[in-house]
Every structure is written in structure tokens, then in C-alpha cells.
Design goal:
8-stranded mixed β-sheet
Length: 555
């Protein structure tokens, strides 16, 4: 599984055909288009076109999806269009390992709905209740982010900004015991194709008249919007709790799974998890729209194999990127101009930990890439959590706003040193926040947000190389944690290939790049405390295919 943006290097790949991603997956498994039994799509494209008042041409859609030449070879392969929210629901339920669960899907939009409650059982998924586009939680939150100067794609930034404020402003999202509404919704009868523009306009007018500072934000004045952000975040959490209460009553389940873009809101997830409404909560590593490809495929697989009545196991690993990216001679040539240390087998984690302990900022790229929007130890930027000044430095390197937080990765066996209770499943994929123990905040100041929380990743021993870094860093410093953020610069997707990693390293202020078993620095004397590297001849490919990746090929 791979997102198109990782291949085209254009954030979100807006408007792009996903054909490069499709073929990367097929090539990785040695499968030709002609070998496919079925093509599953996580949108009901014909219905979406009808809702928008457009004609739908399946042959044209298939050419867009696969590319012209591949589409010709796929002419006899049936295309199965799955309702968007059903695909979201399947991506969560059929990866949870739960025999039965309540399902909450909330995002910007599906074909004609924006929120769905359902129940999952071994026999399948049943939709119970839906809310229309006029009550879209995803659009509401995105437009609030836009109003605060963070763009409509800045939902994650708005969540971070909320921690600096207090929820004391009125916002037009109200929740009841088991329901919610956006009170600036378009008037009844507004055509679906117009609802997006009408809702955005009405929300902006409401923010202008009711919410300090009564004007759309300028980047230089962002903290004036902290209370607004906190108020929007609080309203979203209350709406999610109302949905959870309804799902609990309607399904009778004591377990819940979440999907849709709203499920990326870590603070809201933590609030739901701590509510006591459910015994267990599960969120897949790709709850956003990329995950509907997975959900559609899982549903199609159940139909093809007749696997109704079976409960699949839980997804324990997010490392599903291509095993063998394309040949990259440019990266080999670039490495010939750098200081390259070849770490013997089993020593790359120790050498990386030594760099981190000396205050260096490290780009880390190992094995198969993780899926989803969170760096989970395969494509990460790492630094020492004990040094608060590195928070500003990493944000500067990445081109992020200086007020945005970073988060620690913690080995499973040391979880209780930092947090109360057992690690929640959502922490496996960095999809929840947690309050740090008071004593722990002093040991990881670079990973503590202003409200005393952090967005932790629990790292299990199966993630071999990354887990080993944490243990080695603990041995060197006494602190079993490192700061882990995504390996990318502002406005760019996470790196995927080795060439992406080298090119991003060269354009950034990173001190060190660890690429499989190679530790790479720019030419010049090493910083104090770091041993000079051993030079390695690059007359052959430097990629060691047997290097220990993060979890190897574990699935």
C-alpha cells in the first residue's frame, strides 16, 4: 500500500490520477493488471457524479485510475464501487480483530453523507444512522482552521493551537445527548453540489460576527486565535461523545472502531477513550481517505473468498510500503560526495543513539515505509527529548511553525514510566494523546505540550531497529524515549525512496542521515563527541537489501 503523494512528491496529490501508486503496489507483488479478478474503489463514483449533477463514464474513470495502456488491459475486469463511508468502516472494523464493534465514521464528506454510525459483526457491516453533508464535522473543522490562518488542510495545526487556549467562545457546532448539528447548515433543499460553498460562506460570516478577533487570521497573529481553536476543538469532542453514546446504545457493543479524517484528531480520540463508554477503541493507521482503498479491497476480498462469518486478525504493523523502490543512480552519485559510514550488522541502532545523545538531529529511513500520516519509525526525524531547544530546531529544519509540538516514541516495556495505565491501541499508530506523569515531563521536555500532554507512540520489540534505538538511547542517557516526527519538509509528503531521503537530507539542516545500514554526514570535521566515519567505496550499489529494517517484512 502506498499513497500517490509519496510517488509524485506533491502533498495530498490533489487531482492526480493514482495510477503510479496502483502500479507500485502491483509491481511490488509481481502482479500484472491482467491478473486482477476485481478492481475495488472506495467511492461510489457513479453516485457521486449523480449527486454533483455530472455524467459518469466508467471507461474514462478506469483510464484515469490505471493509465491508458493499463486500462486497455483491464477492459474485462469488473470494477466494484463501494460507498465511501462503508469503505471507511471496513478499513477500521476488518483490521481491528474484534468480532463485533460499534463503528463511527466522520469526515468531510462521502457521496451524500458526512457522518455514519454502523455496527460490525462476523456477517458484515450494517449502517444504522447517517448525517448529511450540511452537518459535516470534517468541513466544519477544516474551515475553522482556514479562518485561523492555517488553511483548510490545517486541521492538525488547529488541534495543536487549541492547547494554548480555553474553550470560552461560542461556535456553531452544538451537541445533544446522542446527536449534534452545525447550526449554520445550508437551508433545506440546497442542492448537494452547492452545499460546500454555502456552508463555508455561512460559517465564515458566523466566525466574523461571533468569534474574537472577528477577522480571518494573519500568520503573525496566530495566538489571538488560541481560544477560538480551543472552542472549536471542545465542540468537536462533544459531538464525537454524542455520537459515541448513540453508537453504544444502538449497538450494545462495548468496543468501538473509528475511521474518517476526524479520527486523526488525537485529542478527541483521547477524550473518547477516557470517557468510559467503551472497553476498547481501535483506529487503523490510515483512517483518512487513503484508507478507503484498503476498506474497499477488504470488502471485495470477503465477497470473492466467501469469508463472511470469519473475523480477521488485528493489523499489528503499518509497514506496507513497497519493498524495492525504483533504481536511483542520482542518490548513489550524491552519496559519493558525502561522508558515509558503513555500520556493521547490528550496530546502526547504537551509532544512531550516540548521535542523538550528542544532540544531533537525525533523518532515519529503514526498510518498508509506514502507511498513513504518522511517522512510526520507518521514515522519521529523530532527536534527543531531553533538550527543549531541539523542539525549535526541528521545527525550523522542517519549516514548521515554532509553536507546534513534537512527540516521543517510547518502548512498550517502559510505557508506565511516562504514562498511567496500559498503552491504548491507538498509541501504536500515534493516534491519541496522553497526559504525561509529572515526573516524566522533566525527562522529555522537548516532547511535552503546553497542556502537559503528548502524542506518544508505543514501540513494540517486533519493530526491531527502531525499538533497538530506544533501548540503546536509554542505556546511554537513562531516558527510554526519543522524539519522533515525520521525515519531510513543510509542504511535502514523507519521504518514500532512498533517493527521496538523500535529496531531502541535502536540502535540510539535518545533521545525520541513517539510510539502512549507512550513517551519512556532509563532508567536514565531525561535531564534538562524534567519531570520524569510515569511508566506504561506492563503486557498487550502497543499498544493503539484507539490512535490518523496522520490522523487516513483518505484516
Amino acid at each position: 500500500m502506498v499513497e500517490q503523494e509519496r510517488l509524485s512528491r506533491k502533498r495530498y496529490a490533489l487531482g492526480e490520477s493514482p495510477s503510479a501508486a496502483v502500479h507500485a503496489c502491483l509491481d511490488d507483488e509481481g502482479i500484472a493488471v491482467a491478473d486482477l479478478d476485481l478492481i475495488a474503489v472506495g467511492w461510489n463514483a457513479p453516485e457521486l457524479a449523480a449527486v454533483e449533477g455530472e455524467d459518469f463514464d466508467e471507461a474514462r474513470f478506469t483510464r484515469w485510475l490505471l493509465g491508458d495502456s493499463a486500462a486497455e488491459r483491464a477492459r474485462q475486469i469488473p470494477v466494484h464501487f463501494v460507498d465511501h463511508h462503508l469503505a471507511h468502516a471496513a478499513s477500521a472494523f476488518h483490521t481491528s480483530g474484534l468480532p463485533r464493534a460499534a463503528i463511527i465514521v466522520a469526515d468531510g464528506r462521502g457521496e451524500s453523507v458526512a457522518t455514519t454510525l454502523a455496527v460490525g459483526t462476523p456477517d458484515g457491516i450494517e449502517v444504522l444512522k447517517s448525517w448529511g453533508l450540511e452537518h459535516s464535522l470534517g468541513h466544519f473543522y477544516g474551515w475553522a482552521a482556514e479562518w485561523a490562518g492555517l488553511t483548510s488542510w490545517g486541521a492538525g495545526k488547529l488541534m495543536g493551537l487549541a492547547s494554548y487556549g480555553r474553550p470560552r467562545q461560542p461556535v456553531p457546532l452544538v451537541a445533544g445527548p446522542e446527536d449534534y448539528a452545525v447550526i449554520t447548515a445550508p437551508p433545506p433543499g440546497t442542492p448537494v453540489r452547492l452545499q460546500y460553498a454555502v456552508m463555508r460562506s455561512r460559517l465564515r460570516e458566523r466566525f466574523r460576527t461571533a468569534n474574537f478577533p472577528f477577522a480571518p487570521a494573519a500568520a503573525s497573529d496566530i495566538m489571538a486565535y488560541a481560544d477560538f481553536a480551543a472552542s472549536v476543538q471542545h465542540a468537536l469532542e462533544e459531538a464525537l461523545l454524542a455520537l459515541a453514546r448513540a453508537a453504544r446504545r444502538m449497538t450494545g457493543c462495548d468496543t468501538v472502531v473509528l475511521a474518517g479524517g476526524v479520527a486523526l484528531n488525537c485529542a478527541a480520540n483521547d477524550r473518547l477513550d477516557r470517557s468510559g463508554l467503551f472497553r476498547e477503541m481501535w483506529i487503523p493507521p490510515v483512517p483518512h481517505d487513503a484508507g478507503v482503498s484498503l476498506g474497499a479491497a477488504l470488502l471485495a476480498d470477503r465477497e470473492l473468498r466467501g469469508s463472511r462469518g470469519r473475523t480477521p486478525g488485528r493489523m499489528r504493523c503499518a509497514l506496507w510500503g513497497p519493498r524495492a523502490p525504483r533504481s536511483e543512480p542520482e542518490a548513489v552519485e550524491a552519496l559519493s560526495r558525502l561522508d558515509v559510514e558503513d555500520c556493521p550488522d547490528g550496530t546502526v541502532a547504537r551509532r544512531t543513539a550516540e548521535c542523538l545523545a550528542d544532540g544531533l538531529v537525525v533523518g532515519w529511513s529503514q526498510g518498508r515505509a509506514e502507511i498513513g500520516q504518522r511517522a512510526l519509525g520507518a521514515r522519521s526525524i529523530l532527536c534527543d527529548p531531553r533538550r527543549r531547544e531541539l523542539l525549535a530546531r526541528v521545527n525550523q529544519i522542517k519549516g514548521r511553525e515554532g509553536w507546534r509540538p513534537l512527540a516521543p516514541a517510547v518502548p512498550e516495556e517502559h510505557w508506565r514510566r511516562f504514562f498511567e495505565g496500559e498503552p491504548p491501541p491507538a498509541a501504536e499508530f500515534m493516534l491519541t494523546t496522553r497526559a504525561l506523569r509529572e515526573a516524566a515531563t522533566r525527562s522529555v521536555p522537548a516532547g511535552v505540550h503546553v497542556d502537559g500532554t503528548t502524542r506518544p507512540q508505543v514501540v513494540r520489540p517486533a519493530q526491531t531497529a527502531f525499538h533497538q534505538i530506544l533501548l540503546e538511547f536509554h542505556e546511554l542517557t537513562g531516558v527510554p524515549a526519543v522524539i519522533n516526527t515525520s521525515f519531510n519538509l513543510a509542504g511535502e509528503p514523507m519521504v518514500l525512496t532512498r533517493g527521496d531521503a538523500v535529496e531531502t537530507f541535502l536540502r535540510s539542516g539535518l545533521d545525520v542521515l541513517v539510510l539502512d545500514n549507512l550513517l551519512i554526514r556532509r563532508p567536514g570535521p565531525p561535531p564534538p563527541g562524534i567519531r570520524a566515519p569510515r569511508q566506504r567505496a561506492l563503486s557498487f550499489s550502497p543499498w544493503n537489501s539484507s539490512a535490518a529494517g523496522v520490522g523487516g517484512d513483518a505484516r
